[in-house]
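User: Show me an example of a complex going from sequences to structure tokens.

Assistant: Sure. Here are the input components:
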Amino acid sequence: MAVTIKDVAKRANVAPSTVSRVIANSSRISEKTKERVREAMKELGYHPNFNARSLANKSTKTLGIVMPNSAKIAFQNPFFPEVIRGISMKAYQEGYGLYLSTGQTEEEILEEVEQMVYGGRVDGILLLYSRVNDKVMPFLIEQNFPFVLIGRPYNIDEDQVTYVNNDNFKAAKTVTEYLMLLGHERIGFIGGNLNFVVTIDHMKGYEQALSNANIPLRKDYIVHHEELQEGGQDAVIELMSIEQRPTALIVADDIMTFGVLKMLADMNVKVPGDMSIVSFNNVMISELSSPTMTTVDIHIYELGFEATKCLIGKINEPNFSVKKVIVPHKLVKRESCK
Amino acid sequence: MAVTIKDVAKRANVAPSTVSRVIANSSRISEKTKERVREAMKELGYHPNFNARSLANKSTKTLGIVMPNSAKIAFQNPFFPEVIRGISMKAYQEGYGLYLSTGQTEEEILEEVEQMVYGGRVDGILLLYSRVNDKVMPFLIEQNFPFVLIGRPYNIDEDQVTYVNNDNFKAAKTVTEYLMLLGHERIGFIGGNLNFVVTIDHMKGYEQALSNANIPLRKDYIVHHEELQEGGQDAVIELMSIEQRPTALIVADDIMTFGVLKMLADMNVKVPGDMSIVSFNNVMISELSSPTMTTVDIHIYELGFEATKCLIGKINEPNFSVKKVIVPHKLVKRESCK
DNA sequence: GTGAAAGCGCTAACAC
DNA sequence: GTGTTAGCGCTTTCAC
């Protein structure tokens, strides 16, 4: 059996509670006793038991990370690793551990979240997606459980949730305007899954920019796809089959853009000569495409970092006021636009 | 306060222990009582507390995932998301949760692992890397703590550790032979960090193949780089500066190959016309490069899945015999070789 | 088949 | 400043 607080107490000739106080570094313990106790801990090789502590404390010092169908599509996208990197950094700084959701379907995920909450597995939750008709967020709100959303709540009172997001509407609008400034009027839009709020925001920004410029919206210029790699390729086929082809493309995601570039190359359409492309995210490999892609850097790492900061704040201050953090984006101009 | 086993017991007119047995679905409880208890649980909205259970049980039903400096380099590589996808799947199937390491340096990671082990945070550990002079593995062995390595132990008695790996030596050898069959004799090698065992194995396979073919090894054809994206590009500069340039390249990682392709394109070196390339991993976007890359599919998902299977086996059967699992690899021929 | 009670290792009143 | 003690919510002997 492992060495416990009691063993240490005996060894140091103090009460268990004193040892506990030394662990917590209570100011009410004299330096002398602290030293004595610490020495005893060293000698015996004492290490606190997390479960006991969590049970007594009702605090686990771990954060739950909830991803959309964790195993299937999510992880194909470098967005998630990168956002977790940001989370990880802040969590480590603050002494928190990370617990990962593993469910595949929406139901499984909801079940897992319930376990995390009811089972006292985590102190707070980071929601890495925001989906239309999501069940998880309403549950968390109803339970009044600390959580932070990366993204934007949809069909839910914004005042009820703390979230960290980009201004995706504006980003898409800017990007569209940028293409128009370059002289493009026939701008195609390759969006992601319409169940994700980010997709909706992108589309609205695109529409708004066109409308402001009095360019009529063409439904056939808009294609949505869930799959990242094939998605991009399929979309290109659709768009290039239109009689009056677009001269520029806005693509939801850099990874998709790889597929788009590939397909265009196969079709012998030159980028940026015959087709300009701009996309979103600026993941690491975005600068490794040929041509390198112009894309919106959404500062993924920061999204994770900030969200974690908010969450830990919420956990520590019970009546932490609801907060919205908008992480700025930045258009990174490379070679794919003309 | 949440509803506990006692509340359920009262409601169902049984003892707490009975409720516990119903949860465990003990065969010694009559169907009638089971029904009654379950109904009470439903009515009260009972959910078991994990920490209490773990404390009493000495089992957490969670697995620790340990990555090399989690936040920095690791996650840039799609290898990790993909292997976690495999882990995640098996873990979910078996009712295990996942706990992620967040440390940045080797020391931090060792500390975290100690916490996981001593603190009873996890039932077992998945080591996602195998590094020369690693401290974590010796610790785990010394503690006799259940763990499975993805990769191959180095400088450690193989009989002491269960591991899941590819035959990286053979893969590299095959790949080299493949290039030689295509007529290449001047084959460059762009390897990863030499502290990782996989790099060593790749190199040995490469050397062996050359030696078998009586082609002298040229040190200047071998370059190592840690960074995935710039790494590839830097390496190309080095190799292309050699008077007698290689005509083929073996690259440690698909992501690196993106950098290599980019740089070669910039230098106006045609692939596969002037240079053949083959790399390792076959991550999702590997089929989206131009030209598409020939690469060794190492079945990353399976590595994670199998390792998790082994680990859970080890956890459940105390004297589970040490096991080595070699996941087969497969050369995926695409357009980058000639 | 079911109940009573001890105990997992720790924290936090409450005493002194 | 430090000790005593009662839990935290669950499992698991040991009775009956």
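The lines above are the inputs; the final block is the predicted structure for all four components together. The longest strand of chain B covers residues 276-281.
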